[in-house]
Amino acid sequence: KYLLIFDFDETIINENSDDSIVRAAPGQALPEHIRQTFREGFYNEYMQRVLAYMGDQGVKMGDFKTVYENIPLSPGMPDLFQFLSKNHELFEIILISDANMFGIESNLRAAGFYSLFRKIFSNPSGFDKRGYFTLGPYHSHKCLDCPANMCKRKILTEYLAERAQEEVEFERVFYVGDGANDFCPSVTLTSADVAFPRKGYPMHRMTQEMEKKQPGAFQATVVPWESAAEVARYLQEVLKK
Q1: Is 182 a catalytic residue?
Q2: 35 has pLDDT over 90
Q3: What's this model's pTM, rounded to 2 decimal places?
Q4: 56 carries a ligand binding annotation
Q5: Residue 98 in marked binding region
Q6: What mean pLDDT is predicted for residues 121-138?
Q7: What's the pLDDT score for residue 20?
Q8: Binding positions for substrate (predicted)?
Q9: Long-range CB contacts (< 8 A, 24+ apart) of 120-124?
């Protein structure tokens, strides 16, 4: 069995869902005083303030849901998901995302692919008594390269350990992502594994930089993609072998 890991923002979907929900805000924009509070590495806390502002403006659950449901999938992603549906017994599929549970579930259910995923790891979110959309951090960690609320390497390492305890060993691991926070877990992949960074995005640039600075240090095979159909084709070849 193979383990296949997906990121969500700008990987499964063709946008950053945190930016997308601003479409539900008055005038489809955020006031400058909110935007100015953003600090590198503390995006989750920033989004908590954005959501509180939107709650104050009367943006409701249904408004958010509509936005999430209408975010387009990335090029070729439906093809890849169709392929995975057909070969479901060969792949264990998980999603690790710094977005939020409500948004991811809304989008994947609307697209019809929610059931593909064995497990989704993302920031907890929901609606409080006032109907405000609330967001929390996923966990805390000691990684210096990742945002304060989530290290995907820690999540992946713990998942593999947990599955090993349940006597599930994976022949190979495949990782599909785009961001700097996807580079961190992909560094732990072995030479049997494959990293699929989205072409021209931070994860792709970081794998190239690492290869230049420390040839051979990044062990996984790197297969950049512009359309997820290319990922499907690669996996098809793997199944033929």
Answers
A1: no
A2: yes
A3: 0.96
A4: no
A5: yes
A6: 96
A7: 96
A8: 18, 98
A9: 120/94, 120/95, 121/94, 121/95, 121/96, 121/97, 121/155, 121/159, 122/8, 122/95, 122/96, 122/97, 122/98, 123/44, 123/98, 123/99, 123/149, 123/150, 124/100
Establish whether 178 is an annotated binding residue. yes
- Give phi and psi for 51, each to the nearest 5: -70, -35
The structural domains of the chain, with segments of one domain joined by +, span 2-14+73-124+138-240, 18-69
Nearest Cα to Cα of residue 217 among 227, 208, 225, 229: 208
CATH number belonging to domain 2-14+73-124+138-240: 3.40.50.1000
The residue from 9, 19, 63, 193 that is catalytic is 9
Question: Sorting pLDDT into bands at 50, 70 and 90, what band is 241?
Answer: confident
53: helix, strand or coil: helix
19 catalytic, yes or no?
no
